[in-house]
Amino acid sequence: MLWLGPPGTGKSHLAQAIGLSLIRAGMTVYYRSIFDVVRDFLHDEALDGHEKILKRYLEPDLLIIDDMGMKQLPK
Question: Is 23 contained in some domain?
Fold first, then answer.
């Protein structure tokens, strides 16, 4: 799912509520901001490749990436 809209309209709240509901149902959820995702990949690339980080992002039943488009990403 992709939610678009101006800040303050409840997109993050809705994503967190869905994530919490799935956790309560026994599923796994990984919630990160887009800034954390970029930092994780840049950091792991410098260390040991992307395999470890990809596993962390691809294993959960639901991956929520928040704050996309909020600010300019680091270069």
Answer: no
